[in-house]
């Protein structure tokens, strides 16, 4: 049995109860434990003199016990043990709770290493319940793992140690020998041992580099394989260009960039044996929806169905309404399919799709379900593609016979990452906004100016305009906190500043139907001020809204702020974005300053990348790639090497069909199997 099939309960001391905590960390098997790499290391060799300890930081201190241990009982019958230790530079107090063995473990006059978080105040320097070891023996690095409530680092360290001891004598290395040799990589067994329990910093770095390389290589190969499949000949033929007659019916003239985008698509769908595989990148508000509608019309007139997938119900609903208007008076039949529809509605809709009674199907993930079957899907479009996993995009395309694929994105991707994410996707950039847009004014204010900002919003509303206010950000995974904080915050505004104004609230925990209702009322201006979480980030289009105020602006990535700002300035009214933050740190000033200085999405993305590094650029999972365990994209050298290696391997074994590549194929499958469940 492989270690990846052996349940974690096989390790000593892990019963059902603990196993459920391990599962929260994604560790189900002994193999998963081995792949659960430490977040950091405590280096017992790296000690700090007591006089240099700063408040709130974690340290290793080498010091001698300078007082006997004094034990007292405190409230609740708890035992408190206190002692002092000192080195040449000062002394520090240690406190332990409920450990009656302290006096026998720490001997007066002996020297130890103590590790823990330090508090420094007017009572002196103190560590509470530090870990400790004899001064002479403690020289190794110990792993620090990400934890969950109820699991201590100690338990994980023990589990990792035991799991590693179960590794077979000889491990099959998925990396072929020539690759190891060429890129000077250590063998897998060495890497696994030393990523958890490094002999020293050098060993840890060798282990890391090898594991990062392997992960990037696996990712590269997986992406390349997926793409080569999408290059098979298409069965969908679209010889006639029908886009002209559609564009004529639009209430506006397409911009030059929009026209070029449409022309690119038409030529892809007409002139090549392989399906279109195109990305349209355009800043928020650049008019990607109209381009996509033209492509859908073209598809339908050539005798095929088109599918248009959006990441949220709100957006799908909105696209449906936009399309219904645009196609009014044509024979094109448009269908909406979302998860919140009743089972009966969904069934009927799916029947029409399967019988070919619908031409354009707009929907959410519901489109991907097995039960959605198209009669003849000719073109599969995904909006805001960074919200979807690679596998999901492929799945939509699999509902036709190599249909044409179009993806729309408002997130500019730096070139280094683009190569992995899009590879040989053809790219059209819409670098022009529709005419008549007025530049959005962006202001960055401290919280003491909030009242004035609220007053400004009132004035705008009095003039007939509308506003968004984005709630203070609650960390992801805090569950009901989002709901509470959004509700509390809205209540504060409704009872306070906006007592006499129609205020609505929109957050992710609401039912889809409720969200739709609120958005619909906002669109009709029955709600003047919409208090919302970042669910309004994507795509919503209300032309009358002129103010976007964002609380705790420092907590959002620049790309998110830019998306949020894109919700206003969509009509003919002068619009404003107000960033509220009390954080006066240098990086906040720089980041929010950038927002005030420019409205250019590409420039903002560049700055975001510079300031946060590529690892954070997309947030955790906005790039549509599988979740990586150890690699990120900041190590450009390893990235380039892994790309070169992937090309080499595919050259000697196209499709990796060769038997020696079996372990590597298994790795790819394993990596990409995580895509779907990590994507929302
Ligand atoms: P995005 O690229 O962010 O998806 P949309 O497609 O939602 O942008 O378009 C933003 C707004 O601009 C919509 O209200 C749309 O009707 C309008 N629009 C699109 N193209 C043009 C154009 N060429 N001229 C005027 N308005 C346009
Ligand atoms: Mg859009």
Short description:
With 680 residues, the protein is of the alpha/beta class. Helix content is 39%, strand content 18%. It has 5 domains: 1-44 and 140-167, no CATH class; 51-138, OB fold (Dihydrolipoamide Acetyltransferase, E2P), CATH 2.40.50.140; 168-229 and 643-680, no CATH class; 243-430, 3-Layer(aba) Sandwich (Rossmann fold), CATH 3.40.50.300; 440-598, 3-Layer(aba) Sandwich (Rossmann fold), CATH 3.40.50.
Explain what this protein looks like in three dimensions.
This protein has 680 residues and is of the alpha/beta class. It contains 23 helices and 22 strands. A 7-stranded parallel beta sheet has the order 12-13-11-14-15-10-16, with helices on both faces. The chain has a 6-stranded parallel beta sheet with strand order 17-22-21-18-20-19, with helices on both faces. The longest helix has 30 residues. The protein is globular. The C terminus is likely disordered. The site of adenosine-5'-diphosphate has 18 residues, from helix 10.
Provide the descriptors you would attach to this structure in a database record.
680 residues; alpha/beta; OB fold (Dihydrolipoamide Acetyltransferase, E2P); 5 domains; seven-stranded parallel β-sheet; six-stranded parallel β-sheet; 23 helices; 22 strands; 39% helix; disordered C terminus; binds adenosine-5'-diphosphate; binds magnesium ion
């Amino acid at each position: 049995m492989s270690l990846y099939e052996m349940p974690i309960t096989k390790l000593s001391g892990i019963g059902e109860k603990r196993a459920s905590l391990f599962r929260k960390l994604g560790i189900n098997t002994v193999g998963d434990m081995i792949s659960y790499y430490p977040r950091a290391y405590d280096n017992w060799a790296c000690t700090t003199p007591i006089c240099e300890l700063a408040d709130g930081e974690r340290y290793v201190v080498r010091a001698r016990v300078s007082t006997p241990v004094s034990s007292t009982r405190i409230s609740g019958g708890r035992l408190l043990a206190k002692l002092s230790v000192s080195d040449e530079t000062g002394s520090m107090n240690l406190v332990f709770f409920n450990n009656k063995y302290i006096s026998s473990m720490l001997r007066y006059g002996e020297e130890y290493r103590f590790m823990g978080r330090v508090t420094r105040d007017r009572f002196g320097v103190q560590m509470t319940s530090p870990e400790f070891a004899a001064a002479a023996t403690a020289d190794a690095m110990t792993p620090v793992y990400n934890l969950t409530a109820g699991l201590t680092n100690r338990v994980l360290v023990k589990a990792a140690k035991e799991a590693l001891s179960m590794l077979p004598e000889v491990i099959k290395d998925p990396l072929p020998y020539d690759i190891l040799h060429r890129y000077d990589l250590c063998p897998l067994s060495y890497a696994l041992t030393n990523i958890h329990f490094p002999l020293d910093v050098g060993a840890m770095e060798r282990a890391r580099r090898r594991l990062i390389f392997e992960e990037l290589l696996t990712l590269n190969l997986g992406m390349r394989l997926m793409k080569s499949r999408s290059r098979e000949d298409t069965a969908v033929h679209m010889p006639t260009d029908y886009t002209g007659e559609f564009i004529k019916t639009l209430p506006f003239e397409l911009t030059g960039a929009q026209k070029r985008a449409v022309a690119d698509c038409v030529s892809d769908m007409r002139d090549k044996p392989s399906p279109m595989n195109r990305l349209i990148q355009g800043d928020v508000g650049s008019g990607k929806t109209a381009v996509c509608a033209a492509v859908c019309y073209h598809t339908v007139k050539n005798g095929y169905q088109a599918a248009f997938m959006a990441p949220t119900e709100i957006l799908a609903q909105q696209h449906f309404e936009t399309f219904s208007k645009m196609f009014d008076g044509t024979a094109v039949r448009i269908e909406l399919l979302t998860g919140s529809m009743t089972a009966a509605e969904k069934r009927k809709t799916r029947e029409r799709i399967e019988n070919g009674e619908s031409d354009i199907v707009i929907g959410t993930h519901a489109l991907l379900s097995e039960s959605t079957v198209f009669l003849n899907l000719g073109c599969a479009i995904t909006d805001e593609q960074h919200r979807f996993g690679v596998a999901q995009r492929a799945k939509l395309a699999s509902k036709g016979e190599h249909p044409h694929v179009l993806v729309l994105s408002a997130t500019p991707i730096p070139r280094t990452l683009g190569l992995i994410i899009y590879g040989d996707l053809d790219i059209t950039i819409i670098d022009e906004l529709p005419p008549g847009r007025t530049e959005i004014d962006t202001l960055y204010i401290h919280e003491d100016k909030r009242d004035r900002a609220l007053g400004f919003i009132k004035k705008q509303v009095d003039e007939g305009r509308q506003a968004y206010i984005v709630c203070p950000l609650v960390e992801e995974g805090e569950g009901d906190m989002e709901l509470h904080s959004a509700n509390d915050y809205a209540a504060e505004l409704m009872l306070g500043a906006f007592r006499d104004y129609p205020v609505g609230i929109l957050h992710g925990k609401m039912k889809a139907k409720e969200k739709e209702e609120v958005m619909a009322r906002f669109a009709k201006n029955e709600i003047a001020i919409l208090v919302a979480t970042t669910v309004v980030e994507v795509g919503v289009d209300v032309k009358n809204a002129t103010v976007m105020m964002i609380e705790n602006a420092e907590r959002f990535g620049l790309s998110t702020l830019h998306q949020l700002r894109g919700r206003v300035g969509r009509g003919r009214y002068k619009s404003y974005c107000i960033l509220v933050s009390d954080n006066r740190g240098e990086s906040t000033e720089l980041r929010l300053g950038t927002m005030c200085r420019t409205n250019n999405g590409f420039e903002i993305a560049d700055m975001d990348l510079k300031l946060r590094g590529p690892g954070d650029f997309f947030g955790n999972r906005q790039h549509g790639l599988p979740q990586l365990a150890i690699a990120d994209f900041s190590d450009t050298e390893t990235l380039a090497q892994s790309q070169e290696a992937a090309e080499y391997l595919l050259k000697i074994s196209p499709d990796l069909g060769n038997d020696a590549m079996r372990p590597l194929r298994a790795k790819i499958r394993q990596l990409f199997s995580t895509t779907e469940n990590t994507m929302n």
